[in-house]
Amino acid sequence: MEIKIKTQKVNAFFDRSELTVEATDKATPSYALIKAEVAKKLKVGEEVIVVKRVDQQFGMQDVVAHVHAYNSAESAKKYDSVKEKKAKVGAPAK
User: Fold this and answer.
1) Residues sharing a CB contact under 8 Å with residue 80, sequence separation 6 or more, in sequence order
2) Residue 68, domain CATH
């Protein structure tokens, strides 16, 4: 996957950088893959990266992701409220 940082805005109040990232791949990349690639590109750990949104136009291979890169893991936990989705126990598979 090829990744490019389009914009980077420093937000000192929330102790983070707000990034707009463009990625090109054959299939729509997962949040985890985008998170790993952005962390590798910025040379930071994955615990400080939060993928907020991934946008893709129908039929296109380009993806635009909105990502927050915090200065520390404590700041990420303090200011970001993205929760991992968990399946309900005993729920039927869809």
Assistant:
1) 50, 68, 70
2) 3.30.70.330
Which pLDDT tens digit goes with each residue over 12-39? 888 899 999 999 888 888 888 999 999 9
Report how far Cα 1 is from the mean position of its chain's Cα atoms.
14
Tally of domains within the chain: 1
Residue 35 covered by a domain: yes
Contacts of 19 (CB under 8 A, 6+ apart): 5, 7, 8, 9, 38, 66, 67, 68, 69
Give the C-alpha separation, 11 to 16, whole Å. 5
d(CA 27, CA 72): 31
Closest CA to 17 of 65, 81, 71: 71
User: What is the extent of the structural domain holding 36?
Assistant: 2-79
pTM of the model: 0.78
